[in-house]
Model the fold of this input.
Amino acid sequence: MIAYGRQSINSDDINAVVRALESCWLTTGPMVEEFETAVAKYVGASHGVAVNSGTAGLHAALAAIGIANGDEVIVPAMTFVATANSVLYRNANPIFADIFSDSLLIDPSDVERKITSRTKAIIAVDFAGQACDYDALKQIAKKNSLVLIADACHALGAEYKNEKVGNLADMTVFSFHPVKHITTGEGGMVVTGNQLWDQRMRMFRNHGIASDHRQREKLQTWSYEMLELGFNYRITDFQCALGTSQLKRLPNWLVRRRNIANMYNKSFQGRRDLTPISQGNIDRHAFHLYVIRVKKNHARVDRNLAFKLLRNLGIGVNVHYSPVYTHPYYRNLYGSMNFGCPNTDEVAQEILTLPLHHGMTDEEVAKVIAAVENVFAS
Ligand SMILES: *Cc1c(COP(=O)(O)O)cnc(C)c1O
Done:
């Protein structure tokens, strides 16, 4: 099966992990800081806080800005559940905004419509690896005194105009799960230009304790104070060693991802039965995902059948995503509420993710294209 996404590990990565395992610090050590500095520098942010998942990063970001009971945070309906779950972790309410049906990016005008007196923040998702409309989102956030958070778990290395994702929103969250651009096994990072939020997130990932183990060792003291209720969201040094090693290859990987997307685009050009979602400027796109729409009124097979037939041919297609509010947990929470996201509901029946990762060979790309042509001709 050709996976829709997967990691690439080389001997440099393995050596870096082994060196970290042989060092004094397995966690909370110098490799964590090194990784934080490297990612923050790469995206052009002044602070980076590494945690043990992207989800932990979202949770830490919302805690740092003080999201609490009854607050509302606007999130796109078309995203991984973690985006909305992180709002629930704070006993706050995720409010679902619609997306554009061509790009699947959050629609700023719908965000604006859904603002109430309780709204405190917006989480924008750079879907598939394309940056959202940050000019519009920033303006809305400023006008309504909201914090703008980017869930950029799809978009490490993406750009908007001439800025890297990571330097556009007030806080930006990345994931280092193996299907994402670079991996630490599990892991995540929040980057921000705000020093106070940086400090709060460092406490939050360490039980809400004001100092960490290494700081106490330096000060030769045993005493510490827990100031608020935090979590153990710490990431290990050997994971960060892997991340720092992977980051060095990211620029080449982005080139390869764009290259594969171009091959797909060329092959599917002019088809009415399947259309890639719109990609904006391809040179700024990070291509975590390559998503097509299987057009109901034009395709010989519908999305669900296409999924089955392609899987049978060894193509690891997938669906990103079912709208968050269609999951049983959210249906139980909200009942049969109308979320006012007609575009999300419409595209949810048509989207299909084709395999795309930096380790794919030209032969594998050709095999995917041939299988797609075969299935849609049948
Ligand atoms: C991967 C992902 C997350 C969560 O990241 P984890 O590291 O798996 O916790 C959150 N949001 C989006 C959009 C993602 O794709």
